[in-house]
């Protein structure tokens, strides 16, 4: 059973204030200014592609200043020959385009009870863009991977102190060599047909499809092939979750999830057939099915999948729902992917507040 989390009082003020009428909807919903953190507004979560200015932003440090005249990407470590690429060298490599949904591992953290420390994201730290750039494997093949290579370490141009007591450091993350060499991994310089905006990593960023956002290093300036397993603040201190056996594991692929983008929480609906619509995504496979419930998860019925179906992008869905009578309803959706992964009813609470993918009810009022 999914319980409505809206108190009667909250519901009373929320009704008649549909999301569309809220003033902040056409700007990023700001969570923090320094470093910049913002989520995509509710009403935009029904667009398959998120416009660049409304694509969620998750920075750990100040946005770096990039001087294009001196900019370069250095690639070194366990390689046959180290290399420095300037932007023209990068653009000379074959260009690839891919539609990829990025989700922050902390998306929906504010749904946790008891609360977990960290940015209190609602459900807007997820967005989709058409990314274009070069294949990461093409860059790695240019320098030649050495026989002892185990991981590839990526460095961003942004630096800072990530938490009290930590020293100053750049944003650093690694990937296992087989993931880095997978042909779908992108080093992007375009977002929705435009030059990469500065807050999204200009001039060059990783786009690691299927993985939570932390893997997609922005403002990429360094790639190092290493013969060990990297440990560091953003790798083994943050973005880790304790499994059922008490072992801390690094967060990787995006867990299956879905959302209702319309109607909005607390919306007042007319007593007539209503289109309920939303999104579903999984980092592991394409979405196979989305189910809808209007009775808090007691009964489910299949929704219709619409729009494009792409391996690394979210799937739109909708269903026509006819309320049986006036009253208060708890709407819910849950997704299943092609590998049979099914979205859980309950999120597994964890200290980091990561992977919050449980079913999230939307309470509505149907007018008499
Ligand atoms: N260099 C750098 N890369 C970064 C980050 C960062 O703070 N610095 N944040 C990461 C996290 S946690 C996420 S969720 C995504 C967010 O990408 P976006 O801001 O383009 O949406 O970038 C990732 N890459
Ligand atoms: Mo993130």
What do these coordinates show?
With about 375 residues, the protein is mainly beta. Helices cover about 10% and strands about 35% of the residues. The protein contains five helices and 24 strands. It has helices spanning about 10-15, 85-90, 135-145, 175-180, 235; strands at about 30, 35-40, 55-60, 75, 85, 95-105, 125-135, 150-160, 170-175, 185-190, 195, 205, 220-225, 240, 250, 255-260, 270, 275-280, 285-295, 300, 305, 315-320, 325-335, 360-365. Strand 10 (about 185-190) and strand 11 form a beta hairpin. The longest helix is centred in the middle third of the chain and has 8 residues, at about 135-145. Bound molecules: ligand MTE and molybdenum atom (MO).
- The number of distinct β-strands equals 24
* The CATH fourth-level homologous superfamily of the largest domain: Oxidoreductase, molybdopterin-binding domain
User: What is the annotated CATH architecture of the largest domain?
Assistant: Alpha-Beta Complex
Q: H/E series, N to C?
A: HEEEEEHEEHEEHEEEEHEEEEEEEEEEE
- As a percent range, the share of strand residues is 25-35%
From the N-terminal CA to the C-terminal CA, the straight-line distance is 26 Å
What is the CATH fold-level name of the largest domain? Answer: Sulfite Oxidase, Chain A, domain 2
Radius of gyration: 21 Å
What is the top-level CATH class of the largest domain? Alpha Beta
Task: Give the bound compounds.
Answer: the ligand Nc1nc2c(c(=O)[nH]1)N[C@H]1C(S)=C(S)[C@@H](COP(=O)(O)O)O[C@H]1N2, molybdenum atom
Helix content: under 10%
Biggest sheet: strands side by side, in what order?
5-4-13-8-9
Count of DSSP-assigned helices: 5
The averaged pLDDT comes out at: 94
Uncertain runs with pLDDT below 50, 5 residues or more?
A: 10-24
Main β-sheet, in a few words? Answer: 5 strands, mixed
Shape annotation: elongated
Give the tally of structural domains: 2
